[in-house]
Amino acid sequence: MAGFFTLFYKELLRFWKVSFQTILAPVLTALLYLMIFSHVLEDHVQVYPGVRYTAFLVPGLVMMSLLQNAFANSSSSLIQSKVTGNIVFVLLPPLSHLEFFGAYVLAAAVRGLLVGLGVLLVTLFFVPVTIHSLFWILAFALFGAAILGTLGIIAGIWADKFDQLAAFQNFVIVPLTFLSGVFYSIHSLPDFWQQVSHFNPFFYMIDGFRYGFFGVSDVSPWLSLAIVAGSLLALSFATLALLKRGYKLRH
Amino acid sequence: MVPAIQIKGVSKSYGALRALCDIDLEIPCGEFFALLGPNGAGKTTLISILAGLARADSGHLKVLGHDVVTDYRQARRKLGVVPQELVFDPFFSVRETLRIQSGYFGLRNNDAWIDEVMERLDLTGRAHFNMRALSGGMKRRVLVAQALVHKPPVIILDEPTAGVDVELRQALWQFVRQLNQDGHTIVLTTHYLDEAESLCSRVGMLKQGKLVALDSTANLLKGHSGTHLRLRLANGTLPESLKPMLAAAQTSGEYELVLREYREVENVLAELRDKGLEIAHMELEQADLEEVFVKIMRRE
Question: ipTM value of the model?
Fold first, then answer.
């Protein structure tokens, strides 16, 4: 287990040493989103009865930042190590594929959660946010961060260059996040797009997370939890299989 | 006794390119072994398979009796590899790098050994330097230290002195020699054949993925080249009886004779004396590993 803890610690240290870029910058970005969207839409949009648009927006922004940063952590760490060649330092020791997986996912989840917490704390200065159930908030935050940390490992292993990773991020992760209901409720969409949204697993993460704040959601939080947990399980098995095979890591 | 490294029938291809072809090799414990070959011969591929960085298409490899695939945890614990590429993690200092590497091998509180390794490699003064701030030579020293943090009984150095200054080269060899004397098995790949000749007791040579020579350094030197006698005559030309001994390349006015053994010198001198020839200049040269290497590579 010492190997796992060391790799986990190393991954934490890696992003902590550049925390301006990895923690503070995404918090500031989320704050800018909040200020601009609330300025433009506050008086025009009400998604849930009795909930101000700005308050509605906060959990979405928290979750979006959390997901994107969890993904960024594991994927950027792996691609940097692969491109610079220092990946050998984790491939030469007797680390199992399970330890490798666990350390990268956990560190990614920690960064995602820290950024999410940062966004929440900063927005509290501008918008009062209620908490309906801490259980649902934590459950979806943890599952969401773990899923994106896992996707980050897959992308980091698959990509051979930064360009490919950027494509994965910009053409898969960002659209799935933006189109998951961060800025709106899917009930405001036409029927067809509502149906399409149900195929987006990110929608369930954000919808369930938002339920924890307002006690209102587009679908049942239990259904969301089942889908999110199932997604994490499937992705974890797939990633562990890739790591066991040494896909693109051990030629 | 279990050999330090056991390689049986190992082959590896990258697409149409056959990188390794049915390699059999055994390196006993405590040996200082040189794995030589031109670029692309398969040295690094073989080392990568041994270290678990690549997988063989067929065959088996063991480190101190532990299979590198089925018992990879034990095999990797026994092995320390200094990679050929000058790689480093730019986020950490030298000490952090070594502590983290220790942790990967399950070692905590390893500072006493880390301090000793840093001392031996003259890194102590730079323990708190970020890796980016180090020169190429210093980064190379850290790579060596990283390979040694878990005190591996088998150490592989893949061209450790490429682009390294004389001072570090000497310090490194002194350290590695000491490790070998302490019982560590050392496998070295290098293009500096004088280093291999002076350090290694046995040599394996790879060419296009095949093991084309495997013998003790002394036998290779004796068996493939012998001694060269250079002489310039003050009068006349080389007698016909000595011409079969001439080496292929000759410079004008100077003869180079290839002797199988030292005692043939006496015959040459007697022949010259008989013919009334006088020697203006003469020198004896022992063939070196580089010559053997070139000969074997041309022949195979």
Answer: 0.87
